[in-house]
Records
---
Amino acid sequence: MAKKSKRIRQTRTEFQKVFDKHPGMYEMVPWPIYIPEVMHISMALAENEYTKVMEGFHTVADYVNGRHSFQRPFHFNLSHTIELIKTDPTVLEKIKETSFKRPFDILWHIYRKILNQKIETPRPDNIDALFKGYEQILDGRSDTSILCKYLMLQYDQKNKDYFNQFGAKTKEEILDPGKKSIIMSMFLAGMTTSSNTIANNNTTQGPALSKTSERQVANKAEKASTEKTTKKVADIVSTTTTVWGVIAKTVETSAEDMATPPRYRSTDVPNKKAWEPIAKGFKTAAKAAKYVGNILGIASAGINFTDSYDKWKKGDKWGATKSALKGVVDVALIDLKSNPVGLAVSIGWAVFSSWW
């Protein structure tokens, strides 16, 4: 008889339950995903006393925040530090004056290809600190993990620690059960939601920059959504305007034909009087439809060319070519709506491009 599988029970904290009524307001980042951000701190703690690591941490963080301005102060997480070193090599020089020299020598050499770094570093004699550092923080509640979290929180909160939650200086004070509980909850709510980290980076270019705040990311997404909607609306309106142009042109021609001799010579005067206002109205409507169609055609071409440029910068050459082709055809069709063939081609292209 097959053994029945039991449902795995997930234990959820009271902190998580508070946000159940506010979906999307807070998204927890699991500790295994955040581990790389504190890897260098753990490696430094594996070979140095806590006080020495703390001094080095503050030295580097103060140096960076003194040279650069960010929406959220630099708090020495690994991904942001690596990005800064790419543009400001003096950051690495300052790091090498502290207890973080060896961790960065090892990380830089081992992961140089992944990090795409051009700065050369000497080959480390051994990399035991890398394995030790990783082992120490596999458990997010371990002593080393708590110390790593505390260092980041202490620096981040140093000018707003109104209740002296981060005044502890020794390992024994920090690892007190009551203090550990505060560190765990504050780190979860504060540091893991920071835009400075890999886990919260919405780009595909690697580690995140602190300059890219949560609001900036949201603005980019909103802008992309608006551009997509604008293009869709332009396609739909362009198609509608083109169809209206066909109808207006047909009725205008018929009205003028009925109001013009010699086809209705015997009843020319009454027909002309009856149809002349209609013909005039449809003629005006046809011109308006043509002008609106031309404006929409230019707008659509502009959107497509802009989209092509953006895709080319991102390396999407096929997408860029497709958008550029759409723009070229939009321009070519602007003056073709005044004849039946051009109108037919314009309708076909409007329908096809909105689907393609």
Note: The chain has a mean pLDDT of 74.
---
Amino acid sequence: MAVGPSGSEPEGRGQVYIPDPIIRLGRMKFNDTASGSFFVVNGSNQTVTLDQLVKSCGCTTAELGARELPAGGRAEVKFSIQSGTTRGPRSESIGVTFSTGAGRVLGPIIAKILFTPTGI
């Protein structure tokens, strides 16, 4: 089973991917919290298990809508992120690892969250 490069949508079938891997939150006030979500799609012909969410920063929380993802199915990943107090563009990421019925762990596929703390 293949994984789309950097979480991008694959060219063919047989892949697990994030259709929209870049999430732009725009400007945020200092210590503000924003929430959002993205989807993981199973384009393969077998059920996969979403195993783990790997976050790039302690400022991010994330939760899976479903752990078992049937062939052709999709699962929502909800997240929230705190902007902190440093001005300037930031990029954080959430990786999703998954496994097949054979227990082989694959991934992660990655969603990037872009935002800019402005202090205003």
Note: DSSP finds no helices and ten strands in the chain.
